[in-house]
Amino acid sequence: MIDLHTHSTASDGSMSPGSIVELANRIGLKALALTDHDTVAGLDEAIDAAAQTDLIFVPGVELSALNEKGSLHIVGLHIDHESPRLASGLQRVLDMRNERNPRIVKKLEELGMHVSLEDAAAHAGGEVVGRPHFARAMVDRGYARDPNDAFARFLSKNGAAYVFKERLDPAECIDLILEAGGVPILAHPDQTGLEGEDLDEFVGQLVDMGLKGIEVFCSSYKSHLTAQYTRLARKYDLVRSGGTDFHGAPKPDIKLGRGFGSLYVPDELLEPILLTSAGTCGNRTHPARY
Ligand code: AMP
Ligand code: ZN
Ligand code: FE
Ligand code: FE
Q1: Per CATH, which fold does 2-90+171-280 belong to?
Q2: How do 56-65 and 31-34 pair as beta strands?
Q3: Which of 131, 151, 166 for a ligand 1 pocket mutation test, highest count of atoms within 8 Å of Cβ?
Q4: Quick one: which of 17, 133, 136, 241 could link to 8 by a disulfide (CB 3.0–4.6 Å)?
Q5: pTM of the model
Q6: Are the beta carbons of 32 and 242 closer than 8 angstroms?
């Protein structure tokens, strides 16, 4: 069993990179990827922790791309996380976030809620500060019952304090991951707001941009989605990936490796992914041939 989509305190998860690695090892996962939103800051800690275990650790990242409809996330697996070009791309992404955050503060202020940038940052474990951290700060201050309530009433797209965040376009996300030697993978396609023929056509466009994989397993999928995305993988010659999208406490029902309980991402998915990468990730937590 493997899990190739997880989040730590380096973005919006509640567990440190090292403790996720330890947990993965304890529950007997064969391989784990850490795929924090917009940052590679957690990877050194995870690599060090994984070096103490037999776990195969796959360095990753998850980028949010511009998309007309739902959310479009591209996961990059087996990246060289020290790639200077990836670093400068991620800095641009961080700048876009840091441009939005003060505007969220202002909107909340206009609504009579006093939540500072520092309040939100205090809930972030690293440099990535976003809506989930504002949601937690709002709960602290009594403006919302829980983070979901903060999103529902204020922070979600239809919420009163919503501020659009500039994002890279899908081709830029794919390029950055390729430049870092990684495998660009369409994460949870069900969240794109597309299905059937529309999704098929869209995946074709992403493949033209350099997409190399698709998540055929995720916590939330009903089995027909796994079958449907497996057909897309075959049609476009994409490697298949999968993971839980584990976040720890923010999504308490999603367990590492198991999702809502019945997820099982088979080991055999790993090797084609590693062989599709440029093999330049440079860490020694997996067999040298990759
Ligand atoms: P940001 O990148 O700052 O816009 O925050 C996006 C993150 O917020 C996502 O990865 C989710 O974890 C979280 N999120 C987005 N929408 C919701 C929602 N309606 N309820 C709870 N969390 C959400
Ligand atoms: Zn997240
Ligand atoms: Fe995602
Ligand atoms: Fe994710």
Answers
A1: TIM Barrel (3.20.20)
A2: parallel
A3: 131
A4: 17
A5: 0.96
A6: no
